[in-house]
Amino acid sequence: MSGKQYHNMKKWRGFFLSQHIEQLEKVEDEWEEVMSEELVYQVLNSVIQNRSTLAIQQHSSDLSPGPYIIGRIAAVEGDLLHVQTNENIQVIELESIRYVEERKFQKWFEA
After folding, report:
1. Which of 7, 24, 59, 68 has its CA 20 to 30 A from that of 52?
2. What's the pLDDT at 17?
3. Could you tell me the superkingdom of the organism this chain comes from (predicted)?
């Protein structure tokens, strides 16, 4: 493979990778609808069974929602959920969960 062909391929892949990174880093700044406790538990059960990534929005007294807590469930201890994020492990009270969603793994080239 010549240098030029390789260079074009790298650019082509970089184009899709940059779109994927933008999608992952997109700031979510809208309140989601409050979920029932039963629905929260159903989603959490699915996340645990599938070993998926989840996104949690907590109740807040602020006018604007805080950032989603995105990660994987590391442990469950009573009414506490331990979520492994990219930075650390966050401990979340189940009662504080306003909205939770299971995030399926998406291949960067299918976006």
Report:
1. 59
2. 54
3. Bacteria
Under a CB-based contact definition with an 8 Å cutoff, are residues 97 and 43 in contact?
A: no
Please report which confidence band the pLDDT of residue 25 belongs to, taking 50, 70 and 90 as the band edges.
Answer: low
CATH number at residue 93: 2.30.30.100
Q: Which of 92, 95, 20, 16 is nearest to 55 (CA)?
A: 92
Sign for the CA dihedral angle at 89, 90, 93, 98 comes to negative
User: Which residue has 């990534």 as its token pair?
Assistant: 53
CB neighbour list of residue 92: distance below 8 Å, 6 or more residues apart? 56, 58, 69, 80, 81, 82, 83
- Share above pLDDT 70 across residues of the chain, in percent, rounded to a whole number: 68
pLDDT reported for residue 74: 96
3-state secondary structure at position 33: coil
